[in-house]
Design a protein that fits this description.
The chain is of the alpha/beta class and 308 residues long. The chain folds into two domains: 185 residues, inorganic pyrophosphatase (n-terminal core), CATH 3.90.1640; 109 residues, Diaminopimelate Epimerase, Chain A, domain 1 (Roll), CATH 3.10.310.20. It contains eleven helices and eleven strands. Strands 3-2-1-4-5-6 form a six-stranded parallel beta sheet. Strands 7-8-9-10-11 form a five-stranded mixed beta sheet. α8 links the parallel β8 and β9. α2 runs antiparallel to α4. The longest helix is centred in the N-terminal third of the chain and has 17 residues. The protein starts with a strand and ends with a helix. The structure holds magnesium ion (MG) (3 copies). The site of one magnesium ion (MG) has 5 residues, from α1.
Length: 308
């Protein structure tokens, strides 16, 4: 029986590349067939990565139901991030670098979870553990996925393991100036022209169950968030709608400026004071500047969670 490998909903590059890289590794060392799949459309950033390393024609297929299947999860263990019928699948393994979520299993599984910058760094270490050579194209994609998740090493989630992995993967891929290539990737990611408010709000949106309270947190990582200023009112209007439609207590969108190294927070909430307390800021017009905040998982989620 095949094993389907996939990352979270609203797949980012770590999810898509992680599914591809992990499937390749497993197919070298196990007899079962591992198949990378995705839970939604890929982003402009991921399209850039697949094209750069000649993988666009091998983009993982869509898989929105997994009842009765064997599955391997990448880049999350939070149930809201997976297919609605994930409880009816057999989870054979997990690779992740987030807080432990609410997924549970009824059978033994392998779990490769580390507090580092990217799931692809964990997968890189798995290749080393099993002594499997990484193909050039896969190495290049893994390198960019790590550079994306760590915001070119600027994120506080970035560790020595991540920088080391990027350097080794760059060698395998034959890329000399990997930071320059990562900047090109972030420019591709920053494109906003033609996008609707809903497109932007859901581009990298995750929902969390915080002690029974539903909170949605989106993030747009940009080269220059001034480009988004004309869209902010529309984004907030649409966040109100998302809050109602999803029956959420709070919807946050982080406009992250990777050059200025901080995030403008947009907030729609039943209780604004909880968000102000979480970050020790006063919101003005539902907005606040969070200096130095680049990471949702490390600098945002824990502080919001502590309020519920
Ligand atoms: Mg991710
Ligand atoms: Mg990740
Ligand atoms: Mg991310």
């Amino acid at each position: 029986m095949s094993v389907y490998v996939f990352g979270h909903k609203n797949p980012d590059s770590d999810s898509i590349v992680g599914a591809i890289a992990l499937s390749y590794l497993k197919n070298q060392i196990e007899t079962e067939e591992y198949i990378p799949v995705k839970q939604g459309d890929i982003s402009a950033e991921t399209a850039f990565i697949l094209e750069k390393f000649r993988y666009a024609d091998k983009e993982p297929a869509l898989k929105i139901s997994v009842a009765g299947e064997r599955v391997y999860l990448v880049d999350s263990t939070d149930k809201p991030h997976f297919q609605d019928d994930i409880d009816e699948a057999t989870i054979v393994g997990i690779v992740d670098h987030h807080k432990l979520g609410d997924i549970s299993t009824s059978t033994p599984l392998e779990a490769w979870i580390r507090p580092i910058g990217s799931s692809n760094t964990v997968i890189y270490e798995m290749y080393r553990y099993y002594g499997v050579a990484i193909p050039k194209e896969i190495a290049g994609m893994m390198m960019l996925a790590i550079l994306s998740d760590t915001v070119i090493f600027k994120s506080p989630t970035c560790t020595k393991a991540d920088t080391q992995a990027v350097k080794e993967l760059a060698k395998i891929a034959g890329i000399e100036d990997y930071k320059q290539l990562a900047m090109e990737m972030f420019i591709a990611k920053s494109a906003v022209n033609g996008a609707s408010a809903r497109d932007l709000n859901t581009r990298d949106h995750k929902e969390f169950n915080m002690n029974g309270t539903k909170v949605g947190i989106g993030q747009l990582e940009m080269i220059d968030i001034a480009l988004l200023e004309p869209y902010e009112d529309e984004l907030l209007e649409d966040m109100k709608k998302m809050k109602e439609e999803g029956d959420l207590h709070t919807v946050l969108t982080l406009l992250t400026d990777i050059i200025k190294e901080g995030s403008k927070l947009l907030v729609v909430s039943d209780d604004i004071s909880k968000i102000e307390d979480a970050f020790n800021v006063k919101l003005e017009n539902n907005r606040a500047w969070l200096k130095g905040v680049l990471s949702r998982k490390k600098q945002v989620v824990p502080f919001i969670q502590s309020q519920f």
